Amino acid sequence: MSGEEAPTQQQQPEQEKQSDEPPPAASGAPPEESRSSPAAEEKPLSSRALVLTGHGGYDKVKLQVKTQSKQLKAGEVLVRVKACGLNFAELVARQGLYEMLPPPPVTMGMEGSGVIEAVGEDVKDRKVGDRVIVLSRSGVWQELVVVPADRAFPMPEQMSFEEGAAIPINYLTAYLMLFEMANLRPDKSVLIHMAAGGVGIAVTQLCQTVQNVTVFGTASASKHETIAQGGVTHPIDYRTKDYVEEIRKISPKGVDIVLDPLGGSDTQKGFNLLKPLGTLVVFGAANCVTGQKKNLLAMAKTWYNQLSLNTLKLMQANKAVCGFHLGLIPDEELISRTMFKLLELYEEGKIKPRIDSSYHFEEGNNMYLYCILNTMLCCKLNYPTIYTSRTETIS
Ligand SMILES: NC(=O)c1ccc[n+]([C@@H]2O[C@H](COP(=O)([O-])OP(=O)(O)OC[C@H]3O[C@@H](n4cnc5c(N)ncnc54)[C@H](OP(=O)(O)O)[C@@H]3O)[C@@H](O)[C@H]2O)c1
Questions:
Q1: Which one of 17, 79, 339, 341 is at 20 to 30 Å from 166 when CA atoms are compared?
Q2: Which regions of 197-273 does DSSP assign to beta strands (E)?
Q3: Domains of the chain, each with CATH number or no CATH
Q4: pTM listed for this prediction
Q5: For residues 158 and 389, what is the distance between their CA atoms, to the nearest angstrom?
Q6: Atom 25 in ligand 1: which residue has the minimum CA distance?
Q7: Is the CB of 376 under 6 A from ligand 1?
Q8: Please, which residues bridge with residue 119 across strands?
Q9: Contact by Cβ (8 Å): 5, 48
């Protein structure tokens, strides 16, 4: 659906003040291909966006119309977004718990896919019409987005826009944790929590690119068949069973790698479950998130129960503890290299995002917002489907 077809129930046009505001006009004349016609240039572009208007519940995310200049800075591309991903971080950001998102009003969205509509000066290896995956700190939940050209990755031909939008956050996180931090090798064992989630599915698929890796995955029972088909060797229902006991029954010595997105007491349990020379990677604090709004009690409990260690004890335990935060990796080259590696794995058929649901942008009313932002709550309520990467389709 194009911007011109915007439904009338939308809110009044509103321009955001924050950092995802459109870039200022570039100095000097942009190249030929970055402009369509002089008349089009004079008019600012308008596009619909899902804007976080304040911290709190679902009602804080509103569909609005934003305007932005069509002029690009050198090295930038303008992308018409076709699909964008919804991540756990956005649920947390809505509650005001994600430090990487600028304060409201701000358009959320860290990943998406679409077609390049214009390129700025000095952009040599991307052109108008290219299908690309985009990665950004925020701002992708809108019809038109401006990103640096090196944050627009060419999509393989056979990849759908939905799949493209579901790759970056989940798979970069999974890949960098497994291979850069935990050094996954053949014959090792891995425990992944939230195994039915986007990162969990990506971790499971990437584990299968290495010979004879055993995957323990925690998830609601209703999702076990699917995650087992996807490669989890031992699905464990963490709601009804003690996952530590279950793992010890199968592997008395524990596991080689624990990937912990939960925090609090689960980090302690994960550390204890490690075999000697094993590695714990802490990459989230989902235990803090229990409902629509910030839960101070859950946050305090998670904080109070977190793993506390001194280095002497760590040395004596012969274990490694790492922390991972994709948004704080300063090495742009590492991110690009890993994205290209992931696209290669996709082309070889070794990874494939599992899309649970897509929602059309034209359903842009409160009900729709409720649906997409309610996904985690649905999961907690044993919603019958698996939310891997939720993708919002704009066209
Ligand atoms: N550090 C980083 O750079 C980084 C990057 C990406 C993601 N993450 C973290 O990775 C985690 C997973 O993210 P995701 O996008 O994969 O999640 P997701 O797709 O939203 O999946 C969530 C899944 O986890 C389960 N779940 C939901 N809330 C839970 C909770 N409070 N405790 C335990 N299980 C819960 C649900 O399944 P069940 O029905 O089976 O419970 C659901 O299927 C989050 O903690 C997120 O913050 C970190």
A1: 17
A2: 214-218, 234-236, 255-260
A3: 45-166+355-373 (3.90.180.10), 169-348 (3.40.50.720)
A4: 0.84
A5: 19
A6: 194
A7: yes
A8: 77
A9: no
